[in-house]
Specification:
There is one protein chain. By secondary structure, the protein is of the alpha/beta class. It has a single domain, classed as TIM Barrel (Alpha-Beta Barrel). Helix content is 33%, strand content 15%. The chain is built from twelve helices and nine strands. An eight-stranded parallel beta barrel has the order 1-2-4-5-6-7-8-9, surrounded by six helices.
Length: 283
């Protein structure tokens, strides 16, 4: 946990980073200001579920952090009565012992459901709310929050601000318009944005969003080193999604392939195997 202890000490620091259009950086922006001696990281996709530990579950987050430092990526859905809860799917069927559309059910109907682990086994764990997760994460880790379709960014940002969680929250966006919306809601928030080509970077550089607010998600396939170099020249951390095919390749060929992704230029591996990937890259 030493990296995150260091991170939370830096929250009191404010510096000016040249790639950020002279905008003063917050603590989390300072933490993600890329330098050549950066320490590579893993991001636990959906919190890093393992046998006995469901996705989007606080107990799972704790299990992963007991093994390694990690960013915790998790998904936000919305109940019928306006409660933000942690759920990837539109329905409850795959991940809980309940059924039906999440958006059509009240929180009272869902809060006592039991979560299933990746193998479909019912556990004793329950669905957390976003508020639960924000309270839990303070001083422990950085969250990357995936706001699912139909969930207003305004509600998420309001809750992040309410819990003073701006300095340990990254909001995932999928379009430039979404990124602009979140930036206008709070100019201190870090944004995960899709940058797959140099032209994508040009569009963000031409926007009102300072580069110091950005982390680049480069996709789920290996990229040429030139893209990573270009992003690094602009002070931007790069996320490679190894979830899916690249994780399966590591399972088949050996975890020694993970360091190769880092050597090529990825800074953060977004993975379904956070413990194995972290060990492989020396975290």
């Amino acid at each position: 946990m030493k990296e995150y202890i260091y991170f939370f000490l830096t929250l009191l620091l404010v510096i000016v980073f040249p790639g950020c259009r002279e905008k003063e950086l917050t603590g989390i922006q300072t933490y993600f200001a890329w330098t050549p001696d950066r320490t590579p990281m893993v991001s636990a996709h959906r919190g890093g579920p393992y046998p006995g530990y469901p996705e989007n579950c606080i107990e799972t987050f704790e299990y992963v952090l007991n093994h390694t430092d990690a960013l915790i990526e998790c998904d936000i859905a919305l109940s019928r009565d306006g409660v933000l809860l942690m759920m990837h799917d539109q329905t409850l069927d795959r991940t809980t012992n309940g059924s039906g559309q999440v958006s059509e059910q009240a929180w009272e109907q869902m809060k006592n459901l039991n979560l299933k682990d990746p193998e479909g086994n019912i556990t004793a764990f329950h669905i957390p709310t976003l508020e639960d997760v924000l309270q839990w994460a303070s001083g422990k880790c950085i969250l990357t929050l995936d706001v699912k379709q139909g969930v207003p960014f305004e509600m998420v940002v309001d809750l992040v601000e309410k819990h003073n969680a701006v300095d340990y929250s990254v909001i995932i966006t999928y379009t430039l318009d979404q990124a602009r919306m979140v930036y206008k809601l709070n100019t201190s928030l870090m944004l995960s944005v899709g940058i797959y080509t140099p032209d994508d970077l040009k569009r963000y550089k031409s926007s009102e969003i300072p580069l110091g607010n950005l982390i680049a998600f480069t996709g789920t396939a290996e990229k040429e080193q030139d893209l990573y170099d270009l992003l690094h020249e602009n002070g931007i951390y790069c996320i490679l999604g190894t979830l899916g095919n690249l994780d399966k390749r590591a399972e088949a060929r050996g975890d020694h392939i993970y360091p190769g992704f880092i050597e090529k230029g990825a800074d953060i591996l977004a993975t379904d195997r956070p413990i194995e990937a972290a060990i492989a890259i020396g975290r």
